[in-house]
Amino acid sequence: QVQLQQSGPGLVKPSQTLSLTCAISGDSVSSNSAAWTWIRQSPSRGLELLGRTWYRSKWYSDYAESVKSRITINPDTPKNQFSLQLNSVTPEDTAVYYCARGQVIVVAGSSYYYVDVWGQGTTVTVSS
Amino acid sequence: DIQMTQSPSSLSASVGDRVTITCRASQSIGSWLNWYQKKPGKAPNLLIYAASSLQSGVPPRFSGSGSGTDFTLTISSLQPEDFASYYCQQSYSIPFTFGPGTTVDIK
Hints:
- The complex is a heterodimer.
- Chain A is an all-beta fold.
- Chain A is built from no helices and eleven strands.
- Chain B is mainly beta.
- Helices cover about 0% and strands about 50% of the residues of chain B.
- Chain B has strands at about 5, 10-15, 20-25, 35-40, 45-50, 55, 60-65, 70-75, 85-90, 100-105.
- A six-stranded mixed β-sheet of chain B has the order 2-10-9-4-5-6, with no helix packed on it.
- The interface of A and B includes residues 47, 112, 114 and 119 of A.
């Protein structure tokens, strides 16, 4: 059974960096079918997929345009985990942050992505 | 970005009712549509992927249909544990956007 365990601070000051880690058990961060994902939810923005990292012979990542200049998602293969760094945070970044496993399956020649495993969520407040 | 809308935004229903939630995409997304259930304080839970495929372990009272721009999530007989919020998500093009959600509460 795949489980994701999040860790990181719940309070970040404006202009500083939000850092969260997601430890994976029951799967590998280097899996050839997974995309390791960060998603957040806030009242103002709803559910928002921030970005993903995945391994297919080499590492790839993609990020939402809304945070692209401020975000990094990194895999850590020795520790079998991945992390989120969001720089220069403002109160607009206050949200519940989830790490998640995205699965990519091929059906009739088409690739489908969905999120099937989630971390427990971390409430992050940006405030001085 | 592809915009996702859902209707209704909320509904009240009774145990045993048939419930239908609609999701619409701002452009055609084929069958690249997922449905999630979310309860307060919990992470979302995948119900349906690829528009109509039931995720393993999800009760068969949940079903999904549609393609192109219009999709439906149906709960055939609402159970007490189904009172929650439901979100659609398109996975056709990056960024994979979510709908605003539909809250199902007790009548």
